[in-house]
Amino acid sequence: MNDLEQxxxxxxxxxxxxxxxxxxxxxxxTAIALQSGSNGxxxxxxxxxxxxxxxxxxxxxxxxVRLAAHGRDIREIDAVIISHDHGxxxxxxxxxxxxxxxxxxxTEKTCETAVKRHPLGKLNDVHFFRSDGSLQFGGVSVExxxxxxxxADGAVFVVSSNSxxxxxxxxxxxxxxGLPEVxxxxxxxxxxxxxxxxxxxxxxxxxxxxxRIRGLEGHLSNREAAELLEAASGxxxxxxxxxxxxxxxxxxxxxxxTHRTILRKDITLxxxxxxxxxxxxxx
Length: 283
Known about the structure:
Strand content: 15-25%
Helix content: 25-40%
CATH architecture: 4-Layer Sandwich
Number of helices: 10
Distance between the termini: 30 Å
Structural class: alpha/beta
CATH superfamily: Ribonuclease Z/Hydroxyacylglutathione hydrolase-like
Number of domains: 1
């Protein structure tokens, strides 16, 4: 990590602590990327008194400590919603349930595949949803959209509350039909910006893995993500948090530079870290 990237995350950590002093309206949707990357994914969303975790790719202690740093208690989470069966999104789901008593929401195919692939242990409080369906938690709705990512039954999500809409859009595969319209309807988004094509091609990955990453069931590059934001986002988009950055084939500074070169819209950009939580973000 170079000096510029270290400075970025030092500033992000400072903003994390300053976030305690912000007057956050009960009408807001607030979000924290507890971690994002192939080493583990978990995003916290709070709206209208409802508290949700999306994915369980970091261990319970990490999630507990990082939430506590923002004044949040992991035991007050209303649901853990799993996007797909890859380990960096689901491997700690069993611990979240057994240690903290959190109900698990997952598609049936994702659950079946995850149990076979990962040592999740006994799962008791499991609720199934469809990857093209929706969930309701009080005044908060969660719309799922099925993705072409190389999983059993992957989904991305739109959280809606009080006419505000936040997207959680990683592991997309490619820009599939309907995605630009959904992006255009959002006030904010966690959007994957996984790799830089030049770094991927010159990097250490074997050819089959490079082909998978850049293929139709893989991930979006920095340029693809930026072009999606530029083409799709309407005037309501306030911020985008670039997420799921590759450690080998990307960097926060490169992702930001690519997006700023392409984006002409007035959208605030953040980067989700592979190693720590983001500041508290609001819409």
